[in-house]
TrEMBL record:
It holds the Pfam family SNF. This is Transporter. NCBIfam families: Na_transp. InterPro entries: Na/ntran_symport (IPR000175), SNS_sf (IPR037272), YocR/YhdH-like (IPR047218). The chain crosses the membrane at residues 12-31, 43-65, 86-108, 145-163, 175-195, 215-237, 249-276, 311-332, 353-374, 386-403, 430-449. Keywords: Membrane, Transmembrane, Transmembrane helix, Transport. It is found in: Membrane. GO terms for cellular component: membrane. It is a multi-pass membrane protein. The lineage of its organism: Bacteria, Pseudomonadati, Pseudomonadota, Gammaproteobacteria, Pseudomonadales. It comes from Pseudohongiella acticola. Its main location: membrane.
Amino acid sequence: MSAPRGEFSSRFGFLMAAAGSAVGLGNIWGFPTNAATNGGAAFLFTYLVLAFALAYPALMAELIIGRHAKANAVTALRGLARGPATARLGVAVGYAGMITVSLILSFYAIVSGWMMAFMFSSLADIAGLSALSQWLATGSLARDSVFTAAFMVLTLYVVNAGVRHGIEKWASRLMPALVLILLALIIYVMTLDGAMDGLRVYLVPDFSRVADTGLLLSALGQAFFSLSLGVGTMLIYGSYVSKRENLPALGGMVTLLDIGIAVTAGLLILPSMYVALANGIEIYNDQGGLIAGPGLIVAVLPALFDQMGEAGVLVGLAFFVLMTIASLTSSISMLEVPVSYVVEEHNASRRKAVLVLGLSITVISLLLVLNFNTLFDLVVSLTTEYSQPLLGFFFAVFVGWIWHRNGVLTEIRQGCPDAEQGLFWKIWPFYIRYICPVAILAVYAQMLLG
């Protein structure tokens, strides 16, 4: 018999954990630059529509499966099967999700380690330890290995404490802190020269781009994958939700939180980039687009902080604390996916599962550090561009085509007795059965065809 499962003690705890899972490094550095290069507010409008039209239905699919099964992804999907073939498919999708999320965590830990190193570099500056600060701010095999391992230790510590005393407790502390730091940084950056230029790029619409297929697919990909969909993290969190909770309402709140923080992050990142430009720092890449991804965080913004003098040290510290928090709230949800499987399917203690899986992923991370130029981009591409979209497609297929419609409705009714008369049930089944699979395949095809 498997060990007793945890459960979130409150709606607030679940919302903070689920929003923390969705709000990660990619949201903070990816969404704003994506918007700026795709028509500004025109992209924002398209993104908002697609987030609720497509990403929210897909999120609900995972939450409903998870709460129905009260189990890990493998057990949950296998339990929805109609026969041996769909049972094997469910097991395969569950295992593929665990492998994918573990590999995502392996490279995510490296980038998160960079955030921690920059955070400590700012602290070293404050303490007057310039040599240490320089070492922490400069990429090297030793630094990257140490901080990758350190970040994984933090992740293991939180997940080992369990759902209520680990994931929920720390997410409930870290997410409000993240929002407060984000707002404080926005207020400060808005006072600097160049900030208004970045704000205009972000918020002034270029409606000529709305009909652009590239913008549509880019917004769809951002909306769908920013919610941590496809690899089972939301399924696992859904399995820890009480049967008394109204799932459509909870899913809507998570979607609103994720969108709200992503859009708010744009109010920091884009103005900061144009403040950097006003200070003579290059913010465009060789192709003429805005620098995004890790290059933005480890090159453009640190150079800006250096030019701010003493204030830059404090601003840099606050920014990298923000990034470390965003990293940790996402990483704990990733590790929980394979941990829940090992605990439930193999009757292992949580402590042992966390230790074995965490150390295994850390070893993979260190191998990526050692072979960074060869393996890092390859693993990122395989997991986020190829595996994750396909897994998202199969989750939609399981809810839309394999799980009996009455079974889905029965599960939703447990926390929402009048669900059948509500707008959600009149629209969502059609979306998850037809629209979501087609939309996901469209994104997948776009990625494959470039």
